[in-house]
Write a sequence for this structure.
DNA sequence: TTGACATGCAACCAAAAGGTTGCATTAATT
DNA sequence: AATTAATGCAACCTTTTGGTTGCATGTCAA
């Protein structure tokens, strides 16, 4: 999996909003997704292409319409591989910092 | 919490690498973090500033040295608030898509 | 106090990101 | 066949991003 593409895709608030809208109602067309956004259809197309390249959105052409479906798998994978790592660090990190703060006359 | 700053901070591979290095050894100085990276000290400074602004890194000046500590809390918060949402969507999303794919003579 | 070490600040630059407009293509409707 | 609807493609523009270099500041050591 291309974790970098997923992180970059998630970095933009408009794209996270698009994912949220697909979460609320899956299988929307480009036109539907554009409605209510303060941005042109072409801009939305670009955002959706980035989401699709990151495999966060799966599309389905039928006739002249293009339906968009949320794919939560890449987010799951990142959560499992990357964030889980930081779970175990939670306690340790703050202890390290606290010790350093208290040890004010340390080996500076 | 500023979720956007966290997402943006995590979008860059160099910054994720810096977090990984702090995970491996917490409390490193700017100079130590710069070593082995194919980039100038000033570039690293900028990356660390972005991580610090996102509250992913906490710094501590002591004399002429600046120590950097990993703060995993913002990542935990995002995992809880944002990714948990997509946990429940996992099954549903693929079912929706599959149904659409099979229903080939649908209301296109 | 002089010199070396660790970091900060600022100007600058190229490339990427996010957006726009205009036109082309494809598919449904009448 | 002509019209309308949904989307694709491409050129263009501005701002942000990621990086550089040069110099300044602060701090430790001799």
């Amino acid at each position: 999996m291309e974790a970098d593409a997923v992180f970059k895709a998630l970095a933009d608030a408009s794209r996270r909003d698009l994912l949220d809208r697909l979460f609320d109602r899956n299988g929307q067309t480009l036109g539907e997704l554009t409605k209510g956004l303060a941005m042109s259809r072409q801009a939305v197309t670009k955002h959706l292409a980035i989401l699709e390249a990151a495999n966060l959105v799966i599309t389905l052409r039928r006739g002249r319409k293009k339906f968009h479906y949320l794919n939560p798998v890449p987010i799951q994978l990142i959560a499992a591989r990357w964030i889980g790592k930081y779970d175990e660090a939670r306690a340790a990190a703050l202890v390290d910092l606290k010790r350093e703060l208290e040890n004010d006359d340390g080996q500076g």
Observations:
- The radius of gyration of chain A is 20 Å.
- The longest strand of chain A covers residues 57-62.
- Chain A has a mean pLDDT of 85.
